[in-house]
Amino acid sequence: MTKGSIGLNAGAICNILSDGQYWSFEALRAKSALSEADLWSAIGWLARENKIEIDNSNSHPSFRPGTNFNY
């Protein structure tokens, strides 16, 4: 795993999130075909840039575009 691959994976997750809906981790993983580690790295990258919103209100987090999302 490199910074470049994490960035590419983050871009792929942005493309999935562009529908504006909440996505579960499992659904993102299935749609992106990323490993668990690669997906968490991409989510971390997007979280750092405020491009992803993480909802922890129930037992499993869900994700949707954040405040700096611009895709």
UniProtKB/TrEMBL annotation:
- Domain of life assignment: Bacteria
Alphabetized InterPro entries for the sequence: DUF2582, WH-like_DNA-bd_sf
Q: Pfam families annotated for this entry?
A: DUF2582
The protein in question is named: Winged helix-turn-helix domain-containing protein
